[in-house]
Specification:
The chain is of the alpha+beta class. The protein has four domains: 100 residues, Immunoglobulins (Immunoglobulin-like, Sandwich); 111 residues, Immunoglobulins (Immunoglobulin-like), CATH 2.60.40.10; 271 residues, Glycosidases (TIM Barrel, Alpha-Beta Barrel), CATH 3.20.20.80; 110 residues, Golgi alpha-mannosidase II (Immunoglobulin-like), CATH 2.60.40.1180. It has 17 helices and 32 strands. Strand 14 and strand 15 form a beta hairpin.
Length: 667
């Protein structure tokens, strides 16, 4: 072996490479400048002979090193030139391809340092798998972060899933492993073969992979080739005042494109994409499914299908939200923060996602080393799973929200109320400007518990229902509309009487009206199958979307005003929705009593006509049509601390919505 070759290919390094323990194969393989020339080395476990084919037509025989399937060549010049390797295998097969280790790393040192600081937001441009052309050669570039492992190899259809053929090269300052594979085409399946410090071998999907097939096999695709045609929507979104516009969200359960096509555009403004169906709306943890972080929830095999779904939604005037939970992710490492921020930016940039719904960050989390694609690896200083303070995730969430505000104005941010509280119970320093709306489960939970009581229990617990409504900032709440007993309502039972069924229908319609009237944005996660209830709910939501009095956030003005929230004896709640920018005001009277109330007196703010717009007991909505033609007259008689009042008749468990103000005087 020539002296120059021996200077590059040390025996111990050659043995590490041959036995699959080398984390930096570029220290041996590829091109190396030495005194008086250059050394080019290559390896194939089944090779018996190897030649170098230069671009000028020259052919050079390569020498075997240390009697191992490693071959090297010394050339007495330092010129850089393109070449291919011609390999002869034991089987008699001949392979010719470009040398993967002759191509430079595409991640700059500055990007590597930013990654270590947790500041490389657009890491997804290079991390993962990307089609590239380097030095005139087309292929795929791969990069993955794999902390605390011995080495990483790339496997797939292109190398018969043999982990010995394409070991990846660890970068100088961090645990990023990278390689450029010439000649590989889009659509090919691949995985990373990881060898832990204990010698165990795991095959995992690409955390930055944009498509999946057959479980944990990632798919090579170019996500930058989609012809977006929603520029008008994106500009409108950027200028929108989200807090003072109506928002009705529908949770897509099956994530099929035709689901969006079936969403009524005059009822819903947004859809929420989630992986889990049913009532577990926050069940999908987009950042803890192992290799699914960048994969579209719908389908997974072709990102263009998901992008077409988003684009079609935009054409229909519907925004697309994606749910996110960081509950099981440990954010103690800057690289993890970088990964998560890059992922959010990816969804906004490459998929035109219109908003994110963040779930509660409470609960223990496993360390990233333990969580990386289900690889069980050990940190030198940690032998057990790590439980971190939830405030670290909240700090990361604050950083994520700030990035969204900076990078994509107009993207909606919905957070959980728990994200605003520190573990000691104090209010977090998260500024209001970082998020748009927060989940408000207290109102829904109080309503469900209240509806579960009998008449006596409702009189007793009346103030538990009204207490959550005393909180300020209701206009920035996100309210879940689902009726608690909807599943029971649809069940067919031989002993379920018509009266019981009717009572449940009445209760459901009352629940929908009450929650629609309360300030806040709306979300429906349960499918409504009964046509009359669906008609009723959609009518409510159309009304909500039409009138500013019902959807404005109330910044700087009072949009919600109590009439009487203290009538526990009658189990009636009444309130007013109004807006200074609109002449249409609304009076909601919600009768939670199981008996009808005849000539019930309610206070009103002024003389004028109060027109009954909707009654949940109307026959068209499955009710008995009681008192739907009443035209109450306002008199000067004090009631509910107001100088004027009127009497109305209330069907049992019903909601009546009256319109008043100049806009209704002439109707």
């Amino acid at each position: 072996m020539r002296y120059e070759i021996g200077q590059v290919l040390k025996k111990d390094q050659v043995m590490k490479l041959v036995f699959g323990k080398c984390s930096v194969p570029k220290q041996i393989l590829g091109r190396h400048l030495v005194a008086g020339g250059q050394v080019i080395a290559a390896c194939h476990p089944n090779a018996v002979r190897m030649r170098l084919l230069a671009e000028d037509g020259s052919v050079y025989e390569m020498d075997m090193v240390e009697r191992q399937p490693v071959f090297a060549l010394f050339l007495p010049h330092r010129e850089r030139f393109a070449y291919q390797l011609e390999m002869y295998l034991r089987s008699g097969e001949k392979i010719v391809h470009y040398d993967p280790y002759s191509f430079p790393c595409q991640i700059t040192e500055e990007e590597e340092r930013e990654f270590l600081r947790g500041r490389w937001r657009n890491a997804y441009h290079k991390m993962g798998c990307h089609p590239m052309e380097i030095d005139g050669v087309r292929g795929m570039y791969f990069a993955v972060w794999a902390p605390h492992v011995q080495c990483v190899s790339l496997v797939g259809d292109f190398n018969h899933w043999d982990g010995r053929l394409c070991p990846m090269n660890r970068m100088a300052h961090c645990d990023i492993y990278e390689i450029f594979l010439p000649g590989v085409e889009e659509g090919t399946g691949y995985q990373y073969e990881v060898k832990t410090t204990e010698g165990k071998i795991w095959r995992v999907a690409d955390p930055y992979g944009v498509a999946r097939e057959f479980g944990k096999i990632s798919k090579m695709l170019n996500v930058k080739s989609f012809p977006w045609e929603d520029s008008d929507w994106m500009e409108k979104r950027r200028r929108a005042d989200q807090r003072n516009t109506p928002m009705v969200i529908y949770n897509i359960l099956n994530r099929e494109p035709e689901e969006i096509e079936a969403v009524p555009v005059d009822v819903f403004t947004h859809v929420l994409i989630s992986k889990k169906g049913g009532r577990d709306i926050l069940g999908y943890r987009v950042y803890s499914d192992g290799g699914d972080f960048f994969v579209p929830p719908a389908g997974g095999e072709d990102p263009d299908d998901f992008r077409r779904m988003v684009q079609n939604a935009h054409r229909k005037g519907i925004g697309v939200l994606l749910e996110v939970s960081l509950e099981s992710i440990s954010c103690e490492k800057p690289e993890v923060t970088d990964f998560l921020l890059s992922n959010l930016l990816f969804w906004m940039t490459e998929y035109h996602i219109d908003g994110f719904v963040f779930g509660e960050q409470a609960g223990d989390s496993r360390s990233w080393d333990d969580r990386f694609n289900n690889i069980e690896v050990k940190d030198e200083a940690k032998e057990t799973k790590v439980s971190l303070d939830t405030e670290s995730r909240r700090a990361m969430l604050r950083q994520a929200m700030g990035m969204i505000r900076e990078e994509a104005p107009g993207v909606i941010i919905i957070s959980d109320e728990q994200n605003l509280i520190r573990p000691d119970g104090a209010v977090s320093d998260m500024e209001d400007k970082l998020f748009d709306f927060s989940w408000n489960f207290n109102i829904k939970w109080s309503l469900d518990e209240y509806l579960s009581c009998d008449s006596a229990g409702r009189r007793r617990d009346h103030f538990k229902l009204t207490l959550p409504l005393q909180k300020s900032g209701l206009g920035r709440s996100l309210l879940l509309l689902d009726y608690k007993n909807m599943n029971n309502l649809y069940q067919t039972s031989i002993d379920k009487s018509e009266e019981v069924y009717y009572d449940m229908l009445s209760e459901a319609k009352l629940s929908y009206a009450f929650l629609t009237g309360i300030p806040g944005k709306k979300i429906l996660s349960d499918d409504v199958r009964d046509d009359k209830i669906k008609n009723y709910l959609h009518r409510l939501l159309r009304m909500y979307r039409t009138y500013p009095s019902l959807y404005e956030g109330g910044e700087g003005e009072q949009v919600f005003e109590w009439v009487n929230g203290m009538d526990a004896v009658s189990s009636v709640i009444s309130f007013i929705r109004k807006s200074s920018a609109s002449e249409e005001h609304f009076l909601f009277i919600c009768n939670f009593n199981t008996e009808a109330l005849i000539s019930y007196r309610v206070g009103v703010p002024a003389f004028g006509r109060y027109r009954l717009l909707m009654s949940s007991d109307a026959a068209e909505f499955g009710g008995k049509g009681r008192f739907v033609n009443q035209h109450p007259a306002v008199i000067r008689q004090p009631c509910d601390f107001r100088p004027y009042s009127m009497t109305v008749s209330l069907p049992p468990e019903s909601a009546l919505i009256f319109g008043f103000g100049p806009a209704f005087h002439s109707i």
